[in-house]
Amino acid sequence: MLNPIDTALQSVSPTLMVPKFQELESLQSNGHRFLVAADGMWLEARRPWLYMRWPLVQQTKVAMPYGVVEKALQVRPAAQSLLLDFVQFAKQQCPLECAAWIVWNERTDEWKLVKLAPKVARNDYVAFDRPALEEGEHLIVDIHSHGRIGAFFSSTDDKDDRGEFKVAAVFGCLDGDVQAKFRLCANVRNPAKLDA
């Protein structure tokens, strides 16, 4: 008999063996699960704004008696005008770093840019309290700036993005030719592994 905590963990993050002789039915409800396939371990996730099936660990040394799955990635695209609004905001704050969220409301299909009030804002760091979202709202893009420094994801960013489902973005060189980096964060310990 499983420990009740293990039972709870496995109920929200189940593992499914991919059938070999029939097609795997896609995850229908919001959540995520791990898939053991012929070629290794995969992550399948669904959110109102995201569906993905992505390999985590691939192997061919051991013959696994399971079926195969294909990569899939569908992301609701954020309103590009809000990214441009953030760039203007970040240029005004330069050389200090700043942060914002792009939030989507699944009930109204409306988008908004939420500028985050900094607890600390320096040339190389920004810290803020996470705002509460209304019912039906989803954080889609978590953005911050690097002021005059180039765009890259730091080890601090890796820690901040750990375990979340979102798109992370960083804009740099805001005093000249603006640079941008984006990555999908999908519940991983090191989001850099899924950089795009």
From TrEMBL:
UniProt keyword Transport, yes or no: no
Matching InterPro entries: DUF2016, JAB_dom_prok, PRTRC_protein-A
Domain JAB: 80-174
Keyword Glycosyltransferase in record: no
One Pfam family matching this protein: Prok-JAB
Record-annotated DUF2016 domain positions: 3-75
Top-level taxon in the UniProt lineage: Bacteria
Key words of the record: Hydrolase, Metal-binding, Metalloprotease, Protease, Zinc
Protein name as it appears in the record: PRTRC system protein A
Protein's organism: Undibacterium arcticum
